């Protein structure tokens, strides 16, 4: 009989350290992606979408508070990549860490479901996880820059708004996508594969044409987004919204298309407004449709169970002997 060799599990501290480094590495990579799409407004550098906030909130929702050290380390690595850290870097790292933790705590308190199958889940992610919690990171970051005299007070409003909206858009666009990928399963072959491919081709062809058009036709992106949401819910709406937002950011950085004749501040404001409405539309409309489909399936299942119960009762009643068959006069 062959000997059975026991395999010892790794010590828990080693697992925690490796997981922390993994989270920090993913946060840093997401930060570098966000920094690659910078905009300048009134001399201040801003990022329209800050993916690390969405990544941090996702890690906390899926794996819990042990991700906090990795988030803090990742935020520190992003700052180190920009230059020698100063005393204000401590406040920025603290704000970028506290904001996702606050978002996680608030979402947990209201019973948030990572499936995003209810409208209340979409509303909670937008208004609690994004708009409310990201006030912490924006105020902490801008406040530390003002205290260190690296940000003039006349630029305070525009930089704070850009910081807040960028962090919030990271949660609205990136968190649903990562939650979707975490639960993704290969669907069975069906006729909808052809529609999915057609939608993908339409998005890849039409969206660049819309963005680079010299005529301001950004609104034409919304019918495409609505089509993707109506047919594929979250799986279609969020990737489509993220692709459109990235394309809009690229075009804005090139001063092309609808952003060609605008000042830096106007470009930033228009881009942030467009990305914000796009993300909110995709997330909330997907949640509404998913909730309606879930309710419909629940009603159909309840009706089916009721029919089966009635059939069972009828079969039992027809099979029982009558009074004369039992010998009762």
From TrEMBL:
Residues 21-292 form the MASE1 domain. Its main location: membrane. Pfam families: MASE1. The keyword Cell membrane applies. It is found in: Cell membrane. This is MASE1 domain-containing protein. Keywords: Cell membrane, Membrane, Transmembrane, Transmembrane helix. It comes from the Bacteria. InterPro entries: MASE1. It comes from Streptomyces salinarius. It is a multi-pass membrane protein. The chain crosses the membrane at residues 14-35, 55-84, 122-146, 158-181, 193-226, 232-252.
